[in-house]
Amino acid sequence: MSETTSATPTQQIDNDRVRVTEWRFRPGEATGWHVHEYDYVIVPSLDGTLRIVDATGEQLAELKAGVSYYRAAGVEHDVINAGAGEMAFVEVEIKAHKAG
């Protein structure tokens, strides 16, 4: 099995309410295995195909620029650019909720 290179994270905001990170992936690059401690929203910047691997197996996800999706915290997974071009998205982790 070949070694996968790492995607590039750029943290934009990290405060008591949210953490915002831009992820950029060349073809074949991956985030590496991780678990989100907070619920989060993914906002794709580019169209692309991601391979998402977790304990249940793997699936391909077709992302469209500007079409967001939500995931709950707690699932251990790895995210790999399965497309032929660069892939990028902004990840918004929701740390705190203010009632009202």
Write structural notes for this entry:
The protein is mainly β and 100 residues long. It has one domain (8-94): Sandwich (Jelly Rolls). The protein is 0% helix and 54% strand. The chain is built from no helices and 9 strands. The chain has strands spanning 8-14, 18-25, 34-35, 39-44, 48-54, 57-63, 69-71, 76-81, 87-94. The strands form 2 sheets. Strands 1-2-9-4-7 form a 5-stranded antiparallel sheet, with no helix packed on it. It has a 4-stranded antiparallel sheet with strand order 3-8-5-6, with no helix packed on it. β1 (8-14) and β2 (18-25) form a beta hairpin. The termini are far apart. The model has no long low-confidence stretch (mean pLDDT 93).
Features of the shown structure:
single chain, 100 residues, Jelly Rolls, five-stranded antiparallel β-sheet, four-stranded antiparallel β-sheet, 9 strands
Summarize the structure.
With 100 residues, the protein is mostly beta strands. The model has no long low-confidence stretch (mean pLDDT 93).
